[in-house]
Amino acid sequence: MDRYERINTLHRLLKSARYPITVVRLQEELGCSRATVYRDLAFLRDALMAPVEGDGEAGFRYQSGENERFELPGLWLSSAELHALLASQHLLARTGGGVLSSMLAPLQQRIESLLAAQAGVSAWPVERVRVIPHRGRKLDEASFRTVASGVLERRQLSFDYRARSTDEVTRRTVSPQRITHYRDNWYLDAWDHGREALRSFAVDRIHKARVVDQPARDIPDSELDEQLGAGYGIFSGAPKGWATIVFSAKAARWVADEHWHSRQQGRFLADGRYELKVPYSVSRELLMDVLHYGSDAEIVEPPALREQAKALLSLALSNYD
Description:
SH3 type barrels; 11 strands; YafY family transcriptional regulator; WCX_dom
C-alpha cells in the first residue's frame, strides 16, 4: 500500500487499540519494514499532531482519552507539497490542445486523484484553491522549445538577445547549462562564448534561437552555484558585498517571515524594527524588492547602494512635481 493508505490504516489501528500494538504487528498490518513503521509513526505524531505514545519494546497506541477525540485532518499535505501538485496541475492545464495534451492526460488525472484523496472527496474541488500567476511575461513558445532542446541535448545555442535595460540587440552564442523558472518567468543560465563568462538570460527576450551543431561546454554545478546562485535573485553572480536593510516595526511582521536569500541574516532591533542582511551582485532586483516596501524600508549599507536607492526615489518623486 502507498503512504496515504498506510497512514490511514495506522490511524485506524491505533484509534481502536485498547492496548499498545507491537512494531512487529504493525509491520504485518501495514506490509512494510520496521524503519517505515517508525517513519509513519513520527509523521503521524509530529506532522499530524496525533496523540501517539509508547516505545519500540512495549508498543504504540493513542493516549487514553485522546483516541476518541482525534481524527486525521481532511488534508495533510504540506504547503510545499500542495503547491507542487497545484502548480503541476496548472501547468498541465495550460498545455491543452498541444501535441502533448493526450500524453499528459494520465498524469493530470493522477494529480487530480491525489488531490481528491487528500481532501477526502470523490473529485477535487478545483474552484476552492487557486494558483495565481504573478507578473508572468509573454513567451515565444518556439524560442522556449529551442532553448529547452539545447539544454537537454547539450548543444550550443545561437540567438538574438534584446536586453531589457538598454533595448539593444546582440547576437549570442552560448553553451546552455540549465533553465530556471523564477517568479513565473523562465531564465537560461549559460556560458557566453563571446563574453567568456556565465550569464543569465530572460527567455522572453530571446529571439531567432537555433541549436548549433557543436557540443555545449559543461560548467560544474559548483561553479554555477557559486557564480549564479550565491548572489541575490535571478540576476546573481559572485557576491560583491552585503546589503543591510532596516524595516519599520510594521513591516517587520512580514519581512521576518520572508525568504530573500539562502544566506540571509535577520534580527529584530530593540525598537521593534527588523534588520535584514543579504549578499548581492547586481543591485537592480534587490532595489526593486526594497523599494516595494516604500517608506517602511531603509538601506543602511553599503553607501553606494543607499545612494542608488536615493536616486531612484528622487526620480520617482519628480514624476509627481
